[in-house]
Amino acid sequence: MRIGITCYPTYGGSGVVATELGIELAALGHQVHFISYSQPFRLNGREEGIFYHEVPVSSYPLFEFPPYDLALASRMAEVAEFNDLDLLHVHYAIPHSVSALLARQMLASRGRRLPFVTTLHGTDITLVGLDRCYLPITRYSIEQSDGVTCISNYLKEKTVESFEIARPIEVITNFVNCDVYAPIKDQAVRAEGRKKLAAPDEAILMHLSNFRPVKRVVDVVKIFARVAREMPAQLILIGDGPDRSAAEWLAHDLGIQCRVHFLGKQERVNELLPLADILLMPSELESFGLVALEAMACKVPSIATRVGGIPELIDNGETGLLYEVGDVDGMAEGALSLLRDRERLNAMREAGRHTAQKRFCASLVVPQYVRYYEKTVNSGQ
User: Fold this and answer.
1) Using one digit for the tens of pLDDT, what is the confidence trace for 85-94?
2) Quick one: which of 69, 112, 214, 362 is 20 to 30 A from 191 by CA?
3) For residue 244, what pLDDT is reported?
4) CATH H-level superfamily of 187-359
5) Which residues of 112-121 are buried (b: 16+ CB within 10 A; e: fewer)?
């Protein structure tokens, strides 16, 4: 198939999933065209079967804000026509599904059919879409999509409830490439990698996010501070965003700044995650928890919150530990209990890898998208 994919190319879950999906689809022999204002950050080099089309946005004195959604719709229509796309797959409802709807209408006026699938990822439903400014257009774009998918049962239920959606919505979970995200089998190689982050007797706790308030990065530092009082440990934070400064200052105020390391945005997180003992994810809300899945595939259990779609991914006590939002003391105690009980930690590591392989590997999930594409394209013929 020839598939157009639009996503936010920045450091966030929806963009990561869309990019990884495109890479996996191309590996299966499909032709993938990314359409966005910049190249997705995980799209490295030029993989065979993948093409990138930049959306130029002109700025005129008349426009206080450049109309990206209109420029995107025009570019979608152009790319679809010039490359004979079978369908568009847009990730994140606003404004991508609206732009796809316009592109479909533009081509329909010339006798060309262009179906589109919308994948809902989380804050497009739980935050942005519920804003009164965007709620009517979000609902309309979902209803007008030729196909709609959600990344978790939680998000599907939230969408139906919040927007009173009656149309069918398919749940296709996030996924991970279990060959790329994998534990380091050679223990000497793993030990050498860990030496760059911590001393041999120190535990490594890790956090990866876009550092938005919903990720509660300050809680990460608080949790680590309690762990660090009880045992030698280092905290590795990967990513960047608005709450980084607050986390940095808290580490300084708590006197642990020398044990807290901010690595910024990293492209090859699959090489860093296997070095950790525990992933900290104390988010206020997660519609799925992709980072926790990537960590599980690397045999790293998560200390996370019991919110959103996380309980659909993590089995509490088996593949990770779940707590209420803000329970810093509980999460710290949970981390300490695992780090002090290596047998339990190792059992959790093995269980997490097994779950990732049996339920969430790309080889299992990506074909679900392909079947859904085929169903969507054929339904209108």
Assistant:
1) 999 999 988 8
2) 362
3) 97
4) Glycogen Phosphorylase B; (3.40.50.2000)
5) eebbbbbbbb
